[in-house]
């Protein structure tokens, strides 16, 4: 699989105060490889460096040092060529306040070199895609937060980008609006086969949207992988609690595919599996065939928040930090 984004050794420092004497190291040697056609998530708390990293990868900001390749192009030397193939949408949408939805889209269409007829057809399609018909003649400053975010997403598709950068796409939105935005992102990516790099501090959003996830904390990537891989790495998979009568073959249980760990206390067996939906049936069959009579099954799922906390805890411990 070809790489859409490759970053090596990205550092970024911000300076403030008199003569820039105050320095804050925001990114500390970031390495990333993102494949074409995947949705990749950068997950981390506020202040972790997510927006700074996204700004550098989208060629809006230069790093202090490091290398960037976007679609095989040098992101530092060929920024103009890269920007023709990418686009970005921010959760804090900021457009020309006095222009309407349609006028703002025409403005950005002109910036990307779309001609009159081509631009008009493109904007008409985007307005329909994001259900903005009733708001197309409303000025930006009169739009709700959800409509502003839909406009931002519509703008980000104006040039049919091969790589789409989304910075906190649902921040500040009502839960129902957030769900709609996520579904639109997923549908658009699936239809257009584009690469999406998403930043968020919303664990559920990352788990729903992303093929792979990188945990970013204090300017450093703690780890990268799929949700299932990260859960296995922390031994924090999904939990199955089974009340039973009879006996359980512990040797067979431990060797069963997908079983990370288990514990038995009296007539209660608590099993940790890597994927609840895939493993539950096999586990129940295995226990039943081994002589156990299943009385009750209770399910529990570990989410990304638990995994992130575990990784962050381990990192703080390694660094000699304390709460």
How is this structure best described in words?
By secondary structure, the protein is an alpha/beta fold. The chain folds into two domains: 36-51 and 79-230, Rossmann fold (3-Layer(aba) Sandwich), CATH 3.40.50.300; 237-301, Alpha-Beta Plaits. It contains eleven helices and 14 strands. It has a six-stranded mixed sheet, with helices on both faces. Strand 1 and strand 2 (22-35) form a beta hairpin. The protein is globular and about 75 Å long.
Distance between the termini: 42 Å
Total tally of structural domains: 2
**Biggest sheet details:** 6 strands, mixed
Order of helices and strands: EEEHEEHEHHHEHEHEEHEHEEHEH
CATH top-level class of the largest domain = Alpha Beta
Mean pLDDT: 88
Shape by Cα distribution: globular
Number of helices: 11
Structural class: alpha/beta
Low-confidence stretches: 317-323
Summarize this structure briefly.
36% of the residues lie in helices and 30% in strands.
Topology:
Layout: E1 3-16, E2 22-35, E3 39-43, H1 50-57, E4 65-70, E5 73-74, H2 79-83, E6 86-90, H3 101-111, H4 116-129, H5 145-156, E7 163-167, H6 175-192, E8 195-200, H7 203-209, E9 212-217, E10 220-225, H8 227-233, E11 238-245, H9 250-255, E12 259-265, E13 268-273, H10 276-289, E14 293-300, H11 304-318
């Amino acid at each position: 699989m070809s790489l859409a984004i490759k970053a090596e050794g990205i550092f970024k420092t911000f300076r403030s105060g008199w003569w820039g004497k105050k320095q804050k190291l925001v990114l500390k040697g970031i390495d990333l490889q993102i494949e074409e056609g995947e949705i990749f998530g950068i997950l981390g708390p506020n202040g972790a460096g997510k927006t700074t990293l996204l700004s550098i990868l989208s060629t809006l900001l230069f790093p202090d040092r490091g290398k960037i390749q976007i679609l095989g192009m040098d992101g530092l030397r060929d920024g103009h060529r890269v920007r023709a193939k990418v686009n970005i949408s921010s959760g804090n949408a900021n457009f020309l306040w006095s222009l309407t939805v349609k006028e703002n889209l025409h403005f950005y269409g002109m910036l990307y070199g779309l001609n009159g007829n081509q631009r008009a057809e493109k904007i008409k399609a985007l307005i329909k895609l994001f259900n903005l018909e009733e708001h197309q003649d409303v000025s930006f400053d009169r739009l709700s937060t959800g409509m502003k975010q839909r406009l931002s997403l519509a703008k980000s598709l104006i040039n049919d980008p091969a790589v789409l950068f989304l910075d906190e796409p649902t921040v500040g939105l009502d839960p129902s609006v957030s769900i709609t935005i996520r579904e639109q992102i997923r549908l658009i990516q699936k239809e257009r086969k584009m690469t999406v790099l998403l930043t968020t501090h919303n664990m559920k959003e990352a788990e729903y949207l992303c093929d792979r996830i990188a945990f970013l904390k204090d300017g450093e990537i703690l780890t990268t992988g799929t949700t299932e891989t990260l859960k296995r790495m922390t031994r924090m998979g999904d939990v199955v609690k089974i009340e039973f009568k009879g006996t359980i073959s512990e040797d067979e249980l431990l060797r069963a595919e997908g079983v990370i760990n288990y514990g038995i206390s009296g007539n209660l067996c608590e099993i940790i599996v890597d994927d609840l939906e895939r493993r539950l049936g096999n586990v129940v069959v295995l226990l039943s065939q081994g002589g156990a009579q299943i009385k009750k099954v209770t399910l529990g799922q570990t989410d990304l928040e638990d995994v992130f906390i575990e990784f962050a805890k381990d990192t703080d411990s390694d660094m000699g930090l304390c709460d």
